[in-house]
Amino acid sequence: MLEEKGILKVSSSFLARSMNLTASQVRQDFCNFGEFGQQGYGYDVIRLKNEILKILGLTKRYSVIILGAGNIGRALAGYGGFLRDGFEVKAVFDEKSDIELENGLPLLSMDSLQEYVKQEKPDIAVIAVPGQSAYEVAKKAVDFGIKSLWNFAPIDLKFDGVCVENIFMSDSLYVLAYKMNH
Amino acid sequence: MLEEKGILKVSSSFLARSMNLTASQVRQDFCNFGEFGQQGYGYDVIRLKNEILKILGLTKRYSVIILGAGNIGRALAGYGGFLRDGFEVKAVFDEKSDIELENGLPLLSMDSLQEYVKQEKPDIAVIAVPGQSAYEVAKKAVDFGIKSLWNFAPIDLKFDGVCVENIFMSDSLYVLAYKMNH
Predict the structure, then answer these.
(1) CA neighbor of B37 nearest in space, from B15, B54, B20
(2) A74 interface with B at CB cutoff 8 Å
(3) Rounded Cα distance, B94 and B142, in Å
(4) Is the Cβ of B169 closer than 8 Å to some Cβ of chain A?
(5) From A176, which residue of chain B is nearest by alpha-carbon distance?
(6) Phi and psi at residue B13, in whole multiples of 5°?
(7) Neighbouring residues of A14: CB distance < 8 A, sequence distance ≥ 6
(8) N or C: more exposed end of chain B, with fewer CB within 10 A?
(9) CA distances from A128 to A1, A52, A100, A143, A168 (A)
(10) Cα-flanking dihedrals φ and ψ of residue B93, to 5°?
């Protein structure tokens, strides 16, 4: 955002304020990854951004498949924002093959997942199936060779040597309800 | 899930295992809200569920409006799961009025938001517009009387006396990328 606004340098105290941290926390966090700033000068915005992208692994590109073509799967398939960050959705898989995707992405049958993963070696599988089938679908993907899961199903998924990140939408809504009542 | 499986009672150690906590943590957490279990017997599944629903505020029903009819807004509008939990989507608002919603929900113009909020008093507004317009749209909703925001835009929203819960999808994807590289 600072880059888009044409701002060239930024202080740790400015960054701290925007993230509800202290300037010292910001400096210490950055220090864990090297020295990005100069005492009394602050951080060069573009250099800092590039260093953070490197730390996060966002200078690479990732190929993504989506398992499940329901509301969430289709929304993710149609969302252009991920591509900008280097995450490219390559295909969507579903049990039902009569669903059409508007954006030209191939919708493939779950039966062809093994062959696809073997050939294309996608980096990330998005679990966008209902909770009841999420473990079974994720297990298949992992058995076929997937090493990273982005999970939208409301269950904990754990597999040895597999990275998992969860988006628990219902939990977030429950927390909102709790806040509204307390 | 236990209820669906017909399981009638459950121990704190079983609950702890399923959530990566210790039995003592589970018991202490529940203790903060009253006594739901009996020493040596465990928790009655249905009673425990009902107590947790009460704590979370999920025994009430909430009316929800969605601000933004892009991919995320439409997916949320079409997702039936929230209704089961008591969150009923009543209307979707967007700048563009030429978008059709498949599920019969009214798609209204952002211009009619003030009148709608005044008349219908929805409990929750979902912020499903792009980051650049999210603050402005949320500010309007709050000025018109909305007290709770479920925010999908990648910015922090803060307003006095307003509950906010965030779903930062891109952040989650960045964390996944970080895990994949470390």
Answers:
(1) B15
(2) yes
(3) 16
(4) yes
(5) B165
(6) -70, -35
(7) A42
(8) C
(9) 30, 29, 16, 18, 11
(10) -120, 140
Q: B175 vs A181: CB contact, 8 Å cut-off?
A: no
Query: CB–CB of B99/B107 below 8 Å?
Result: yes
| Contact (Cβ atoms closer than 8 angstroms) between residue B150 and residue A176 | yes
Residues 88-107 of B with CB under 8 A from A: none
Q: Rg of chain B's alpha carbons, rounded to an integer?
A: 20
Count of CB atoms within 10 A of residue B173's CB? 24
Least Cα separation, residue A42 to chain B (angstroms): 23
Residue B66, classified by CB atoms within 10 Å of its CB into exposed (0-12), middle (13-18) or buried (19+), is buried
Asked if B2 has any chain A CB less than 8 Å from its own CB, the reply is no
What chain A residue is nearest to B17 in terms of C-alpha separation?
A: A156
Across the interface, do B55 and A178 touch by the CB < 8 Å criterion? yes
- How many A-B residue pairs are in contact by the CB < 8 A criterion? 108
Residue type, B153: A
Residues 6+ apart with CB under 8 A from B16: B22, B23, B25, B26
The pLDDT value given to residue B127: 98
Please give the distance of CA B90 from its chain centroid, rounded to a whole number: 15
Q: Is the ipTM of this complex over 0.95?
A: no
| Rounded distance between C-alpha atoms, residue A117 and residue B158, angstroms | 43
- Tokens for A150, please give them: 């982005």
- Hey, are the CB atoms on A165 and B148 less than 8 Å from each other? no
Q: Which of B58, B166, B178 sits opposite A57 (nearest CB)?
A: B178
Mean pLDDT by 10 residues, chain B (182 residues): 92 91 92 79 92 94 96 86 89 84 87 97 97 95 98 94 96 95 90
Encoded amino acid at A135, one letter: Y
